[in-house]
């Protein structure tokens, strides 16, 4: 019964998508999830390029975190999602790799650590630190802090990337985040001496039929010439 009801629910979702497309007349809507820690600096121009090549497509962007993204994909509320990960993905999903992104130390330009070519974890001892709840590497970062026998001064914890960057630049704090997520021109970054990288991917449900436009979006992102 569970499998049968799942197929019924999937058929209902497809019918609703088709009905919305008919009502939109000259537009085809694609519900695209974007992990909240992925900034627009690199991805934004790519989506603009896709829209210019496909003017009849209306992209609806949904801000998600990893667990929520998988839930919405499973429920059929997202056609696909752009996610960053560094661990194994649930078996019911598959992905296309887009680009690799390093984690960096972000700070205001007048911070003492801005004079270093790279920042080591031990350099964060007693530094005002802004903690990102949605960071994929949060556990690894605090493990490295503990292993180095240092203590960071956490001045703020937040799930919001906007608040994180605002506090970093205005309260002389530092944080560790993905390199291409920076949106403020007043924040500088330095490489992390203990390198951490995540793979940014386009994720979708395995064995689920997709609208041709969704397939085209996947092909476009996979073939896009991402900057080095």
Question: Any overview of this molecule?
Answer:
Helices cover 34% and strands 29% of the residues. The chain has 228 residues and is of the alpha/beta class. The protein has two domains: 2-100 and 199-223, 3-Layer(aba) Sandwich (D-Maltodextrin-Binding Protein, domain 2), CATH 3.40.190.10; 101-198, D-Maltodextrin-Binding Protein, domain 2. Strands 1, 2, 3, 4, 7, 8 and 9 form a seven-stranded mixed sheet that branches.
Short account of what is shown:
This protein is α/β, with parallel strands linked by helices.
Q: Any idea what the CATH architecture of the largest domain is?
A: 3-Layer(aba) Sandwich
Secondary-structure element series: HEHEHEEEHEHEEEH
Distance, first to last CA: 49 Å
Number of strand elements: 9
**Low-confidence parts:** none
The CATH topology of the largest domain turns out to be: D-Maltodextrin-Binding Protein, domain 2
Q: Describe the global form.
A: elongated
Sheet having the most strands: 7 strands, mixed
Kindly report the average pLDDT value.
Answer: 89
Q: Strand portion, in percent?
A: 25-35%
The amount of helix comes to 25-40%
Properties at a glance:
single chain, 228 residues, alpha/beta, D-Maltodextrin-Binding Protein, domain 2, 2 domains, seven-stranded mixed sheet, two-stranded parallel sheet, 6 helices, 9 strands, elongated
